[in-house]
Amino acid sequence: MNSDLLKTEVKYSIYLPDGYDYSERHYPVVYLLNGYTGDETSWIESGGMQQIVDREIEQGNIQKMVIVMPDGDDRLYMNRTDGTYPYEDMFMKELLPYIQNNYRVRKTKRYTGISGLSMGGAGALRLAFKYDQHFGACAAYSSAIFTEESVTSSDQESMDGYISKAMPDMVGTKGEKRLNKSYREYDVLQWVKNKDPELLKKVKIYFDCGDDDFLTLGNAQLHKELVLRQIPHEYRVRDGAHTWPFWRESLPVGLKFISDSFWK
């Protein structure tokens, strides 16, 4: 897809369910986001999503759906804070309409889901919370959600590498200075704390994390904040780490959660 906003081509992979080419049916759609250093092929090549989704549909666990996997390009699914690369605007204003206009997908919020792992899990949650009028359900796995303590104490090289393409103004910052306006825009926890709880309730939320994952504390904090604000959600901790074996087990669970939401 050529993006006028980004002035470049945005790559994506798309899963079309069996029978798509021979029907006139319009299908629910899920946007499935990759993690840091991944791209539009990650869920297919490393996650085995095609085999997983085919199996889950065949067994009747999930509805037939279209699944769109855009290249996250390490942009954290947000607009670059210096205004030079509005990835989030592209996602909402160009990619969604492009998919709706070029594939037979249902356009209403009820039949639009969003999902992802790690960077993509945080991106999915943030976009679902921010654009509750567009997404009916969200399923996130091992989401890149950080406690303030982990942000302020993180290794400089690791932090700068993760945020450099989205938040250049954070590069080189240390300690409390990392908790600036740009980071608050990224932080899923801030969205939960600051947005009207009644609007947060408009999106069905599922998220999980492995008990050996370095992001366990951040995800547990999200669960705590949602409970404090009485936001319905499903949160699961399973045996596992920040690895593809964990996410391959998460995907059918998350897609079933989203699929069930289409009909509730």
TrEMBL record:
Pfam families: Esterase. Keywords: Hydrolase. Gene3D superfamilies: alpha/beta hydrolase. Transmembrane segments: none annotated. One of its GO terms (molecular function) is acyltransferase activity, transferring groups other than amino-acyl groups. It comes from the Bacteria. This is Alpha/beta hydrolase family protein.
